[in-house]
Amino acid sequence: MLPNDLLIGLTRALLASGHRTLRRLAATGSDAEKWFSHQTSVHLKGILWTALETEPRTLILDGVNGASHPIYRFLQRVYFARGMAIFAVSRDVAALDALGRLFWDPRKILQFRPLTEPDAGQLFDVAADRFGLRKREVDLEEFREKVLEAAAGNPGQIVEMCRLAAQPQYVTGRYIKCAPLRIDALMRFMR
């Protein structure tokens, strides 16, 4: 996880969720991509700190793998802001790396086993509905089978593969291109 990727991703998510303070501070105008291309990490940190301290939110960081010290320092200030809550999801405690300093108390760590086959299937169905896969004319049963096998009960991977499958570059005719989709989904979890 690179610091600038986190800052941009967090800013995008907060803007999309209607964070009023951040919208006012960012003033992206009509071309948000142009605005993002001109922002430095230092500037994004400053407006995010101000926005989140003014209007706290709950942050869920999914797929944390190797958080750096700068990410820890940024999130440390957010973590201790009044009204804020941060949840970090990783394969194991070691994958948190520097971010593990925020989650040092074992009483605040929850460990989950992989989803059972029926639960994974139910999650797939919910994600397929959420991302509109049933509305498309694709072979959803074949895709479902491949996703459930590849994810091996990992809920984040099931949701990510369904999210990616909604993008046109992964669809050819009635088929979802599972191999490139799976690679891209895994790359998200390896950062």
Q: Which radius of gyration do the C-alpha atoms yield?
A: 18 Å
Give the DSSP E fraction (strand runs of 2 or more residues).
5-15%
Helix content: 40-55%
DSSP helical segment count: 9
Main sheet specs: 2 strands, parallel
Number of strands: 4
Question: Secondary-structure element sequence?
Answer: HHHHEHEHHHEEH
Distance between the termini: 5 Å
Mean pLDDT: 89
- Adjacency order of strands in the biggest sheet: 1-2
pLDDT under 50 segments (min length 5)?
Answer: none
Shape verdict: globular
Oligomer category: single chain
Domain count, please report it.
2
SS content category:
mainly alpha
Please outline what is shown here.
The protein is mainly α.
What do these coordinates show?
- It is a single chain.
- The chain folds into 2 domains: 106 residues, no CATH class; 74 residues.
- Helices cover 53% and strands 9% of the residues.
- The mean pLDDT is 89.
- The protein is built from 9 helices and 4 strands; from the N terminus they run ααααβαβαααββα.
- The strands form 2 sheets. The protein has a two-stranded parallel sheet. A two-stranded antiparallel sheet has the order 3-4.
- It is globular and about 45 Å long.
Topology of helices and strands:
Layout lengths: L2 H14 L3 H7 L5 H6 L3 H14 L3 E7 L4 H11 L5 E6 L26 H14 L9 H12 L3 H11 L5 E2 L2 E2 L1 H13 L1
Parallel strand pairs: 1-2
Antiparallel strand pairs: 3-4
Helix pairs in contact: 1-4, 2-4, 6-8, 7-8, 8-9
